[in-house]
């Protein structure tokens, strides 16, 4: 293990570091390189109209192709990226990439697709965050109305005082805002009313046992009703079968995502799907690759 750190100036100290610390340093170095070496890739999961299956938008989900260990899901590297601060340059790359993709689709798609991008709690601790978003929107020339930023409910609730004013500023840039993983973060209804939010995304945990679990049925119904009362759109996450989709549509939820409709896809595969559903002119698939 000490040998792994060879050439990085750590040899002398490595005997005092335990395995975990060295391992972590190694991971951190690799993650740092992931950005500069182009090892990150955006996958896109379709967001569909539940009745028709028609694609209404996509959510960008980052993946890391680690040359040593293959593809690593975000749950395994976002926490480290957040601890080290790497999440800030990483998130800028993600947003920029997503915006360029939308711009490219503005030429090739017969109907505009909305792009949802996940935010990290760390971005709200960065005083330059809103300015950075504004810069990326301007630089890419994207129509901000096609960008939806997702904030988890827990991020919001734990940092209400700093996050709320920033949400107002983000809204003024013309983007829309969604609360992700809704139902897991104990938000108070009073706060929800005060927030400049457009969309509630019902957490997968409530969807997975529909329509069998009576509690989950009740909770999901209540969230859908509440969203309607507050004038918000509601999107169900993690739909894996037809009975879940039917329960949701029967109860007034129009939009959803999940493996039943599509897994998160590489750009090529998404564009094939869009071509198959007539949204993308045949022959355009694969030609609107990543820019920047
Ligand atoms: P999320 O934003 O709630 O994304 C939904 C997650 O659920 C994705 O996992 C997706 O692949 C998965 N999923 C979608 N449909 C189904 C389904 O039917 N069944 C099951 N079992 N899972 C489903 P993924 O891509 O591993 O992302 C996990 C989390 O990592 C995301 O949760 C989000 O919080 C975070 N994340 C992903 N990409 C980014 C990013 O670009 N930036 C930031 N800051 N966080 C990200
Ligand atoms: Mg999300
Ligand atoms: Mg979610
Ligand atoms: Mg989640």
Automatic annotation (TrEMBL):
Residues 24-278 form the EAL domain. This is cyclic-guanylate-specific phosphodiesterase. It comes from Oceanospirillum sediminis. The chain holds residues 553 to 844 of 853 of the full protein.
